[in-house]
């Protein structure tokens, strides 16, 4: 469970509707990076604390985040690359430190559907 809990919950012990959004965002990040939420080999470093996710200008490149196998699958397919970028943007909204400013789960679900439909003929 550690690694999936947002800092607001850890600080207050209160569960909000945004607590699940954060945890779901971590799960999506696990899928995207193909890494565990907590790296037990590096002193329990949390995936959301990965320095690649903290870019000051807000321009995080999908190529530095996504697993290499995922990137290989979308290489040359502009629609799939855009879908992957939209997926990363959604993940970053879900795992932001100020969880109360994040999206509601219904909005996350709607965005996932929009992303899925964006590549369908």
**How many beta-strand runs?**
2
Shape field: globular
Corresponding CATH superfamily = Transferase(Phosphotransferase) domain 1
CATH topology: Transferase(Phosphotransferase), domain 1
Secondary-structure element string: HHEEHHHH
Outline the low-pLDDT stretches. none
What class do helices, strands and sheet pairing give? mainly alpha
Report helical residue fraction: 40-55%
β-sheet strand percentage: under 5%
The total number of structural domains is 1
Tell me the major beta sheet. Answer: 2 strands, antiparallel
What is the spatial order of strands in the main beta sheet? 1-2
- Mean pLDDT, to the nearest integer, reads 83
Rg over C-alpha atoms, rounded to the nearest angstrom? 15 Å
According to CATH, what is the class?
Mainly Alpha
So how many helices? 6
Descriptive account of the structure:
- With 121 residues, the protein is mainly alpha-helical.
- It has a single domain (7-117), classed as Transferase(Phosphotransferase) domain 1 (Transferase(Phosphotransferase), domain 1, Orthogonal Bundle).
- It is built from 6 helices and 2 strands, in the order H-H-E-E-H-H-H-H.
- It has a two-stranded antiparallel ribbon with strand order 1-2.
- Strand 1 (38-39) and strand 2 (45-46) form a beta hairpin.
- The longest helix is centred in the N-terminal third of the chain and has 17 residues, at 17-33.
- The N and C termini lie far apart (39 Å).
């Amino acid at each position: 469970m550690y690694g999936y809990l947002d800092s607001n919950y850890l600080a207050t012990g209160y569960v909000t509707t945004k607590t699940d959004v954060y945890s779901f965002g971590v799960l999506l990040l696990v899928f995207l990076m193909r890494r565990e939420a907590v790296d037990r080999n590096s002193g329990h470093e949390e995936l959301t604390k990965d320095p690649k996710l903290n870019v000051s200008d807000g321009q995080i490149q999908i190529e530095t985040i996504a697993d290499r196998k995922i990137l290989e699958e979308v290489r040359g397919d502009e629609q799939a690359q855009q879908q992957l970028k939209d997926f990363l943007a959604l993940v970053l909204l879900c795992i932001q430190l100020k969880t109360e400013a994040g999206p509601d789960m219904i909005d996350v679900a709607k965005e996932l559907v929009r992303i899925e439909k964006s590549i369908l003929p």
